[in-house]
Structure formats: C-alpha cells, structure tokens
Write a structure and sequence with these properties.
FBA_II, lyase, Fruct_bisP_bact, alpha/beta, glycolysis, zinc, binds zinc ion
Length: 355
C-alpha cells in the first residue's frame, strides 16, 4: 500500500483513509494560517513519519492571502489557492503524504467552497488532479433534509474531480472562526449528539454519489471550555456504524468518521473513538496556544530586544534576537512539539504510506 509522497487525492486518498481505519489510527488535521504553520505541520509529519492533513478555515485562508487585501471574499478564495499551491510544490520533498482540506463552511460560505471547486476544475484539466483533496460543509444548523441536499449537490460537482466531501451532522458545541454554537449551563444537551438515523440517511443519499466523511457530534466541543454538562460519548459513533452496517450488510465501520473539537479531549476517549472508524481528528486551539506560548516565552526571555534595536546603555545590537526567523522559529518549534503529542495520541507515527 505504498503511495508517492506529496498531496494525495482520489483513489490514493481512499487508500489512506482505509489504512487508518484498518490500522486503528487517525491523522491529525491541523488548521494553518500561513507558511509558518504549513511548514511546521509538514516538518512534524516528516519527523514522525506520519501522513497528515493540512486544513484552512475561511479566516485562515483570508489571512494567508493577507489582511490587507480589500476584497475579503477574493482573499478567502485566493489565500486557499495559494496555500494549496505552496503545499503541492513542497510536500513531496518532505517525504510524506499530505491531504489538503478546507474546514467548516456554513451556508454563507457555500460560495467560497464552490469557487474553490472551480479552481480544482482548472487544476484537474491541467494536471489530472484536483487542487484540494476534500472540502467540508457544515450545515448542521439546518434541517437534515436541507443539509443533505446541499451536500449531495456539492458531492456531484466534486466526485468527477476525484474529490471527497466532509459533512457535519449534529451540532458540535463551541465556536471556531465565527462558526459556532453556544452551550448554556444546565441546558438540555441532547441536540448536541448526532442521531444514528441521521447518519444512515446521509449514507443512503451520499454513498452512491462519491466519497464522503462525517463529522458526528458525540459531545465534542470546538475550542477548549470549562468542563460542562456535555460528556464525550464515543459510543454514538459505534451505534452509527452499527446501524449502517446492519442496514446495508457492509463490512465493519462503513463510515469514514471525523472527530471535531479534539483539543483538550481526554486521551482515553480519543483512543476509544479511534476504534469506531475515526480516521481524522481536527486540532487547532491546542496548536495555536503552543505557537503563542513559545513565542511568548521567547519574547519574555529577550524582552529588551523587543524594546530597543540597540541597548541604549551599552550599545549592544539586538539584531540576532529580534530577527523574525528567531521568534517565528520559536513558535514553529512549540507548534511541532504539540503535534508530536497529537500524532502519538492518534497512533499515526511511523505509519506513513509514502515511499
Ligand atoms: Zn465541526
């Protein structure tokens, strides 16, 4: 099951997903906002001999294009295209397989995803491969029928380009990049758990159309929150798999499941989720903090260099300390150390299919 190093799509992506599920491990899907985070992700993956998923939220893509671009929508599209081109150029030289993905898109962001599929269409014509491996639609705030009919429309566009679609069923608590849901203290939290019947409905509609994955809510929360009234219940994933398997007489774990809001989760619940066909776990909040913590420590340890270009008392030049390659690298190192931990939790170290 060896794959060529670089960005994977189509059959190679399916091989990668199936290897994860059969091997009982998952890939970290890491939110990136620029070349620092993209390169740190590839470095961590190469160091751990793990395949990896690089994903951009709409806000991350906009930041990638530059906060100064006046047309925000264009920036979201072109930033995502730019990040993908960067990864297509470099990934094979890191010697691992990289999945390129975009994160949460609600109804307002459907035009963003459609515009990115347009770019994959032209990329496919030129190279025989899409620009992105997969995109994500999060219409979990809408009725199940509205959610799934839009997902079906999108998957029909994507499947001929060898692309995969990730959908969300049930509401993951918390907030990420302005897309989110409040959890009130003491409120009834049953709506935060995905219903296996909804997952079956998605499978019935989407599996004839192309390759897809499901982010199901089992008490997971975006970001890190105080422990509240929502408990992680990975058995919801098991029950969803069982219902589809029984209904369609498939092999075990027919669904490709995604764990959103993995930051701050108990390690035992992560391990349990992996046995139910979870092949991807999103990580953002924890890697953001790791980057910031390392930069913060560097700045505090070298405080004078961030105040004076030259020491006003003894004339010492501080260029070696304030050089952005020093403090950005400190951030990258913290980011990589946190990813080492995530890759260990997910069991993907040493499992890269790239050869
Ligand atoms: Zn989500």
């Amino acid at each position: 099951m060896a794959l060529k190093p670089g960005v994977v799509s189509g059959e190679d992506y399916i091989t990668l997903v199936n290897a994860c599920k059969e091997g009982g491990y998952a890939l970290a899907a890491v939110n990136c906002v620029g070349t620092d985070s993209v390169n740190a992700v590839m470095e961590a993956a190469a160091k751990n001999k793990s395949d990896i998923i690089i994903q951009l939220s709409n806000g991350g893509a906009q930041f990638y294009a530059g906060q100064g671009m006046s047309d925000g929508f264009q920036a979201k599209v072109l930033g995502a295209v730019s990040a993908a081109q960067h990864v297509h150029l470099l990934a094979e030289h890191y010697g691992i397989c990289v999945v390129l993905h975009t994160d949460h898109a609600n109804r307002k962001l459907v035009p963003w995803v459609d515009a990115l599929i347009d770019h994959s269409e032209s990329h496919y014509k030129a190279t025989g491969r899409p620009l992105y491996t997969s995109h994500m639609l999060d219409l979990s705030e809408e009725s199940i029928d509205d959610n799934l009919s839009e997902c079906a429309r999108m998957l029909k566009r994507m499947a001929p380009l060898d692309m995969s679609l990730e959908i969300e069923l049930g509401i993951t608590g918390g907030e990420e990049d302005g897309v989110g849901h409040e959890i009130e203290e003491g409120a009834d939290s049953s709506h935060l758990y995905t219903q296996p019947e909804d997952v079956l409905q998605a499978y019935d509609l989407l599996s004839p159309l192309g390759h897809f994955s499901v982010a199901a809510s089992f008490g997971n929360v975006h970001g890190v929150y105080k422990p509240g009234n929502v408990k992680l219940r990975p058995e919801i994933l098991r029950n969803s798999q069982a219902l589809v398997q029984e209904t369609h007489a498939t092999a075990a774990n027919p669904l490709n499941l995604v764990f959103h809001g993995g930051s701050g989760s108990e390690k035992a619940k992560i391990a349990e989720a992996l046995t139910y066909g979870v092949f991807k776990m999103n990580i953002d909040t924890d890697t953001q903090f790791a980057f910031a913590e390392s930069v913060g420590k560097y700045v505090m340890d070298n405080a004078r260099a961030f105040k004076y270009q030259i020491d006003p008392e003894d004339g010492t030049p501080y260029k070696k300390q304030y050089d952005p390659r020093k403090w950005l690298r400190a951030g990258e190192e913290g980011f990589i150390a946190r990813l080492d931990e995530a890759i260990a939790d997910l069991g993907s170290a040493g499992k890269s299919l790239a050869q």
